[in-house]
Specification:
Layout lengths: L4 E3 L14 H5 L20 H12 L7 H4 L11 E2 L35 E9 L7 E10 L2 H5 L7 E8 L9 E10 L2 E8 L2 E2 L2 E7 L2 E8 L14 E2 L2 E3 L8 H13 L20 H9 L17 E4 L7 E3 L5 E4 L2 H5 L7 E5 L12 E6 L5 E9 L8 E10 L4 E6 L16 E5 L5 E21 L5 E4 L1 E5 L18 E5 L2 E5 L8 E8 L2 E7 L3 E4 L1 E2 L2 E2 L6 E9 L2 E2 L6 E3 L14 E5 L2 E5 L8 E8 L6 E6 L3 E4 L7 E10 L2 E2 L6 E4 L28 E5 L4 E2 L15 E3 L15 E16 L11 E6 L7 E3 L1 E7 L7 E20 L8 E3 L1 E6 L3 H6 L16 H11 L13 H17 L6 E3 L20 E9 L3 E7 L8 E14 L2 E10 L1 E6 L11 E8 L8 E6 L2 E2 L2 E3 L6 H19 L2 H6 L8 H5 L12 E5 L3 E6 H8 L6 H25 L7 E2 ...
Parallel strand pairs: 3-10, 10-11, 62-63, 64-67, 67-69, 94-106
Antiparallel strand pairs: 1-101, 2-9, 3-6, 4-5, 4-7, 7-9, 8-12, 10-13, 14-17, 15-16, 16-23, 17-22, 18-22, 18-24, 19-20, 19-22, 21-22, 25-26, 26-29, 27-28, 27-32, 30-31, 32-33, 32-34, 35-36, 36-39, 37-38, 37-40, 40-41, 40-42, 43-46, 44-45, 45-51, 46-50, 46-52, 47-48, 47-50, 49-50, 53-60, 54-59, ...
Helix pairs in contact: 5-6, 9-10, 11-15, 16-17, 20-21, 21-22, 22-24
Length: 1820
Amino acid sequence: MVTNEIQKRRGKAEMKRQLVCVLAAWIGLQLPLGALNAYGAQLPESAQQMETQAENDLSQDGNQTKAEDSAEGSGEEHFTATSSEAHRQEDEEDASDTDIVPIASPSQPTKPQNEHRGAVTVEIRTVLPVKSAVDFEIELNEKVSRKARASEDSEAFQESAQISLLPQEDSGEAEMGKGTFGNLPAGTYELSVTAEGYLPYEQTIEVKDDTCKIMLLNDYGDYEYSSSAHPGMIRMGDVNGSGVIDKDDLDDLVDAVYEGGITGMDEEGMDLNRDGEVDLTDLQYFASLYTGKEGSDNKYPASTIERSITIQEGDVKLASSSDAVRVEGSVDDLFNKENDTSVTLEREDTDQPISEEYPVELELDLSARPVTAGGLVIQSPEDSEGAISTGEVEVETTDGSVITAKITRYANGKKSRSVRSAAAEAVIDSDGSILITLKDQKPVKKVRIRITGTVSEGNLAEISQVEFLGDMKDRIPPPVQNIPENVSAQIGSREFTLTWKKEVNVTGYEVSITNGGRTEILETSENTLTVNGFNEKELINYETYLVKVRSVNGNWKSSYSAQISVMPEPDGPPPAPENISIEGGYKSLHVSWKKMDDTKTYSLFYRQAGTEEFKAVDDLTGTSTTISGLEDKAQYEIYMIGHNPLGDSPHSAMYSGSTITVEAAKMPAYRLINVGPKEGQSMTDHIKEVSIVAGSVTNAAGDLVDGDPYSCWEFNDWDSGGVYKNYRGPIVTLDQSYTMDTIAFIAGPNQKANFREYCIRAWDGEGSEPQIIKGRLSLQPSLDKNGKNYYEFIANKPFTADKVQINLSVPSNNNYMSIAELRFYEYDVLLNDVFALYTDDLHLTLQNGVTMDTINALRARADEVDEISGETTPKRDLILKELDTAEQILKDGTAQKVISIDTSVSKKYDSHITFSSGLNAWQPLGTAALAGEKVIIYVGAPGKQPGDDTNLDLYATQYHGEYSHFQTKAADLKVGINEITIPKVSSLNTEKGGALYVEYTGNDPGESYGVRVSGGSQYPILDVTKAATEDERRALVDAYVAEMAEYVSRIEELHNADADSETSHSHICGLPYDEKNCILGATDIVLDQVMYSVAIQPLYEELTKNGETQEEAAERLYQSLAAMDGMVHLFYQHKGLSDNPVAGDTTYEKDRLPVSRLNIRYQRMFDGAFMYAGGLHIGIEWDSVGLVGGSVPVEADADGKYQSGRYFGWGIAHEIGHIINEGAYAVAEVTNNYYAILAQAKDTNDSVRFSYEDAYRKVTSGTKGGSSDQLGMYWQLHLAYDNGFNFKTYENYEDQRQNLIYARIDSYARDISRAPAPGGVKLTLDGADKDNKLMRLACAAAEKNILEFFVRWGMTPDAKTKEYAAQFNKEERAIYYINDAAREYRVTDGTSIADSVKVSVTAKQDEKEPNHVTLTMEASAEDGSDIGKDLFGYEITRIQRRYGKEERQVVGFTQTDTFTDVIGSVNNRVVGYEVRGIDWCMEPTKPGRLEDEIQISHDGSMDKSGWKITVNTWSKEDEEVTGEDEGNLSCSDTISSAKTMIDNDRSTVYDGTVRKTEDADASRTEDAQAVISLGRTETIAGLKYTYEGDSPIEKYTISISDDGSDWTEIKSGTFRLENGTATVYFDKENDSRYNVYDAAYVRLTADGSDRFAAAELDLLAPVGDKVELDQIGILAEDAVFEHSGNNSSGDTESGKTIIPEKSIVFTGRYKGNPAYNMVLLYDASGSAVGGKDSTGAIVADQLILAPDPKDGQLGEITEGTWIYYIRPEDQNSLTLPDKVRAELYRTQDAQTNDKDRLVSDTKLISVPESLPEITITSQP
């Protein structure tokens, strides 16, 4: 039955696999065991044989010719690999007498004196995962002959080292460690590697002036090696340290597991997976590497020795051919294998990315010591952004010839076929290494590495290692493990679509994306993925993302692909630049702006105010620039434009700024003490000395008082004593004592930050104690209005002193302060005389006896001139204002209104609120002020004195400002008078200024403050919190609307009033009236939880848009404010916040409502924003202000079900959600929308803003990570656990918590100590990510284990989450399917019917698309009646098997009675189905099971979208197109009908013929052909030709091309049609191995025919492995298989394998790779099929047969045969099962369940009751 077939060697003499051992039965697993050759290379049969072979090789003549080296078989490294028990015979001959030439040796070696070049590098990788460090002890001992030992001068080399491997958590990749023994003399060395629990590994290595590398794995895992070079294996299982793995180890480990109490700390050797426990997992590991056969356990594959040339300092010089390239690093960085260093290359002449235009180059000059090499390897650090992606390598040999190898991004080393004709080839291997293979060994003197691209497309390239190899075939390649290839990206705007070659025998892929140091992992089942988000935000155009992909199959994961960089690009011009800030300098302006999306460069345009022409500054790439050469003290207007390759942005808004003079601020000279200095004096008058406590001065200590503003005291710290009172400020001593109250000073020219805190100390007389002088420090404008400022300190009361110390501080993020000039002023009583007119700090009441004469006398004094300075008092304006106020009070008895500060509102009370940073505690003053305008803030506080500190801060804002420039703290207010110049907040060229606010910063509700404002412009405000009753609230609203009506009509008039006055609004702002930007248009409305700070005009227009009367407008506003109160109350109810959080006798302060408010402000929108949530506020625009008056309170029934009303729009609730999101689990743009739905949904499925169908697809997809529909997850928790409808709220705090799940979730987030812990496991959140925090909190709130719900939604619980959840009962309901309708059913007392429903299912497989299976469900009651309509829906579970056991995957949910399962990448697999009904209470029914399983098998036909086809034939179906313009030949053409061959329709047929030439007698010289253009490079494995008509194509040739020009023939033959179809795989004649090819074009030629006829042409992608079970029977006679090639040993006779007569035999066919495939048989219950040996272990044997490949190299084959048999001696008491199934695995070694890949299986096949006799024959 089997002819011309050979057995693929398995690394065992008896050529069989034992399927299952008793260990596996103990732990419930069936593990395939036995060592095998995983690499396609023959391994020695025994340790003795390997050592003998090594010694024979070493005795050969060392000067053998190159021809001998290249002879067949001589390229393999020979080595000794034995266990410690194996016999090791000492050399009888002097091996060192033989001059052995290493495979890789440098030409003309000139060994440095006293230095050896030999080295041995040991690299160890953990493939079987371990949980903690494994310490491997490495010993290297020189093997010295008898002759050498007799020499006294000989000293053997002996050295040891340790390699510790630590696990990489969830990396899916092996951890690697390595070490190098260097400076080794030439000779023979014994390497020994040991570790607790591992079989000792030994290997003999011959070292001769080269570096020998071996690689060891602790298991081969799922790695495949096609090369003869391969790693070795160090095996687990020697648990007792005896040096062998045998039954004693098994017994000891079993005893340890079942006796318990032994930990890894006690017996490290038994803790194989290093998790700290000796348990069944360790037994599983042991089983995977134990055969149970005596005498066979001490062998292991030994590593190929990879030889490279040792390079040392002095051998090579590093250089670059261009002075523009900076090279950082040394020779040692490249060639020392122990270093983790690298060499970097960067261009110094440009910051452009490395490219063809801007390459970097590294030259390795080896002229001093050329090396003979067969290739070289260039590596970059793992995941380096500077890794090489494109470029070329030039290798110059000693004879002057140059070999060039191109490096291309997607070159790779996988076994796909391609044609290469270059002298050298460069490929990027799967581990990112660049391999340059020279056809022959060459003496190399120079290597030039020219880099034209890196993976990140940046301007820095990085190389970590260069190796010269003597023979590239000795290099141990990275494992072939289905690593995705040709990863590429199609970029879009804020997204990119990744594609890569589809891998076979995998179930999906993981995509790793890295940006800014953060990495995210995405999953997909297809070989394409569109990425549009990262880090919970959308992608950023022109930002670089690093991407790599790996394959997955169950728990198995490949290594990652080579990393690529992806940069999304916009699809249109950029947005207008925003947030421009202008800072004035001397004849310059420093301009900065926001980094705009989609923008490559910027242009800035500026002009002096009042001029016409703008000047441009182009090609700006950063976010700031300085414009120089401007006029002094001049105002400039600025706008900007952004650019990208697709166009220009709109103009930005206009901004303005002014240059400032180089001159210092002018300070007052009125009553100045230290005038001068006079000529020849170094200091001003009356200054005795200056003492510098800390810091430095420009010239001398007197610099502070020398009249020179450019010499100063400087201090490099943020505090000189203003805060910490360490008193490090300068001390000034005067010539005598003076009574003073004012000190003025200016900062040095280099100071940027303003002074904040201060402490003034003063002494009066020698030996006196210093006194702290209290007062206030303010910033004052220069008297000459030159744009500069000075500081003024005014003491609360006069003080007398002859010595003063100035201690100051700046913000702590600034470490610099300075004082350039200090001035002291004699006390002037005038100001205090004016203040003395009043009885109170608010200046509301006059003293008795004040008359107009008193007031007029003080006015006259204000005009008095200082005789020395000629100046009037600098407080003249203030004094006159105070006197005007006094006159008004005297005449009218009134002054401006006083605002009572609400000290119950402070952020200090909200420390328990996790979202308090987004809340605002400001209180409006009803005053708007322009930047530069002076206002007087009066503060009264009972019990405090003028000048005392208060807990009040003043904030200035920018009206209609940008989100990042809308507010600044203007002052810390003092009791009494506060004279404040309003600072500039924004550089917008609009009115600069806005509303003023006070914030109380204390925490004492008993404090009392009154505030009055003088100056600025008053506007209407409404504060309904002042109302005690609803009537009072209505009265306040009525009054406000009345004031609003009058005020709105006068805004423009107020703006333009008194235009000629220097103090008028229009004069100060200098701009015409603009209704959207005039600060007089402000208004504030204060509610308990919200403050509106909006434009008054659009609000009034909304209230009166339908002609409402004033009363009706007031009612609309009243109702709308009530709606906002109601909505926020609803939100805070769901956050578990209450104004009275009392349960029982306990008050839970952490659940108390915040007193700070949400602040909704009129703001300027940034690009793409309709509204936004920013720091301290929510921004809305002019057109959205109307919402303040446009809503109506929602009315609901007693259960909270919606009746009427509306809560604003989606937007404002969405933005509030951003603010109040619980930070522990918040996901931007997702969790905040929970509140938006809560405000909008009306308890129906169609009123939520997500699709339940999309949600159901997510929870049945099995994918990890979030999705665009994840909002549904948060909403479903509300639906499943809240005991009311959406608008249900509760008066009682306990009821609120009991009935609202998010109330409990957020409450526990604020106070985890309250969370339940029924099993004693307390809730913790520290260290958990947001997903795990939410899962723990939700389990606590539900008091259920609801992890399945979250897993369905793509979350992954960690160990702590599982531990916490495990103490609760599991939630049995399928709440991941709940919707609003189901919630209504539950809340209205609906009952479950699940227990009384029976579900059944039938299936139909699509004939054309066999991976489409349509299921039909029925549900019946106990009486058989159909009740499907009473079910909520059906959940579909797909069932597959692995190691005989069922593996279940939920694949869908439907609310109809049918469902189509589209089975993605699975092929050649058997699937079953199970369906359970879900009732309206989310209770599941018992599942119904599909009776018959379904075989999924397709041929790999590729998707034809994007294909094009051209032919050289003409068909009568072609369409002629004639242009109307006869002179335009391009308008006349023929549209070919050939496209019908790729339309997926067999009924449309193409039939064409090659047109004859004009010479009718000419014979045909061209065969008919069709060319398919795929649109991109694809991997193809075959072609399918379909045609059912007459005269089909017979002889054919198939060719491929990358560009459509250069063609390579890959297959020819004759089509053999069956049912109108012929399928051709790309195998060779008489060779069932098939090949795969990369191609962009495929050409099919009808050989010898001018006719081309076809209904359909299909190309086939690799489809993976396949298994079929054909026969079951008893072997009638011995089956004998003879080996071919070098496989000369067998089971019973040399060169033969015998299956004994009477064996029970199962045979079948397979498609795959015989080197890596394995077949297992199982019965219907999942038990392994086999006999039993004398120990009771289940045993069976198998052969994997393949056609003789002639060349000795096995590969992928289209059809082979497998034989699975049970020997007669193992059939005692054997009862065969009724049915069996075959499972085909991809594997290399006995392996654990989490590593093997199941790639194909069969249905259950009936076993004949009486087994027929079978004869199996094999021909030699």
